[in-house]
Write a structure and sequence with these properties.
Radius of gyration: 29 Å
Number of strands: 8
Structural class: alpha+beta
Largest sheet: 6 strands, mixed
Number of helices: 18
Strand content: 5-15%
Distance between the termini: 82 Å
Helix content: 55-70%
Length: 383
């Protein structure tokens, strides 16, 4: 097939093929209740104008085997809501069950040194219909047709569409406003780095916690507390702690019953975090900067702050231990702020405890060993 044949005859056939592939995906997904919902499925054939431009770029405009030169004459884009949805779809093996896949053409696009940090993010497959399907009369026409499948989240899709319309169509401005175009491209890249990749990961976390709540799991039961100790990296520690701080603490009416276990687990978690190096966060579309030990301990400090009146003596002892072992200046300041709130006269606390908090803290300080008092000098001054 040459370009003229594609333009006059095969363009419409490839458009029909793309619609057929979309139909197969829609039916397969609809009959599998375990698969995530799709935002949309886009289907199209490459327009003759765009194909002509691509063939010119590669010196293949006179080729008599355009279908071999281009694998994207038919294209499908599967658009999911979150990274988790993409992971679950890929794990289902639905693509392999319904189509023949060109294993050599599977690509995962994300910024790397090898591609000069290109921000386009997608997972791509090239497929054709299975032999048993092409034996059916309604599919026989598409026996040797190939279709490119792009899998993206809605965030990645929005960036791809916008950047394609602006950045990749700037050839009309060649030689004009070049510096301004470079600035625009940089802004597009910054959008991915600063907003879209972190936002995609945050959507993933929120979805995970919502599903835990749907399953009726008590996020702060004793089993969950123990899991804090068994985590092996700071990314997971941070996620577990944030979920418990944001969802469990505000709704637990009997946190005092597990405070002792929780306190010990939080301190063990802090110690483990301090000796664990930061690791990159893996997502389906690339890697994010990992969580540091300081990030983990900031959340632990916030939890103790939220629970400061549950068991005042144990709470104060815990934040003293954190302060003594932490070297990060910002984290130490957060601990001092915590102690200040514990020791100050707060109206609701005054109504319940009167001067008991201040008297208890004064008693703790009076009984503290001088050596430890010197190590905690700035904290004691805050009290």
């Amino acid at each position: 097939m040459n370009f003229d044949e594609y333009e006059k005859r095969y363009f419409s056939l490839y458009a029909d093929f793309a619609k057929t592939v979309r139909f197969i995906f829609e039916r397969a997904i609809a009959t599998n209740n375990s698969l995530p919902a799709l935002k949309s499925i886009q289907a199209s054939a490459k327009s003759p104008d765009r194909l002509k431009a691509r063939l010119k770029e590669t010196g293949l405009l006179d080729s008599h085997a355009v279908e071999d030169a281009r694998k994207d004459l038919a294209g499908i884009r599967l658009i999911f809501y979150t990274n988790t949805d993409v992971d679950r779809f890929l794990a289902s093996r639905l693509i392999f069950e319904n189509f023949e896949i060109d294993q050599q053409a599977i690509k995962i696009y994300h910024p790397t040194k090898e591609n000069a940090g290109t921000r386009y993010q997608a997972i791509e497959y090239v497929l054709h219909l299975k032999e048993e399907r092409t034996k059916l009369p309604e599919y026989a026409t598409f026996k040797d047709f190939r279709c490119e499948i792009q899998i993206q989240t809605i965030l990645n899709h929005a960036w791809s569409e916008t950047s394609h319309d602006i950045v990749y169509k700037d050839s009309q401005l060649e030689g004009f406003c070049t510096r301004s175009m470079y600035a625009i491209i940089k802004r597009f890249n910054d959008i991915v780095d600063r907003y879209l990749m972190p936002a995609g990961y945050e959507f993933q976390r929120v979805q995970h916690e919502y599903e835990r709540l749907q399953q009726g799991k008590n996020i702060f039961d004793r089993k969950a507390i123990t899991s804090l100790i068994n985590v092996v990296n700071n990314n997971e520690r941070f996620d577990l702690l944030v979920s418990r701080k944001d969802y469990a603490l505000p709704s637990d009416d009997d946190i005092a019953a597990i405070f002792s276990d929780l306190r010990d687990s939080l301190l063990e978690c802090a110690k483990a975090a301090q000796t664990t190096p930061s690791e990159l966060i893996e997502t389906p579309f690339g890697k994010l900067e990992g969580t540091t030990s300081a990030d983990v301990i900031r959340v632990i400090v916030k939890i103790f702050d939220f629970l400061r009146y549950v068991d005042i003596e144990d709470n104060f002892s815990a934040v003293c231990e954190l302060f003594q072992t932490e070297s990060n200046t910002d984290v130490r300041k957060k601990i001092l702020d915590n102690v200040k709130r514990l020791s100050e006269y707060e109206f609701k606390a005054w109504q319940e405890f009167k001067l008991q908090i201040q008297l208890l803290l004064a008693n703790i300080l009076s009984e503290m060993e001088p050596t430890r008092g010197m190590e905690l000098r700035s904290l004691l001054i805050t009290v």
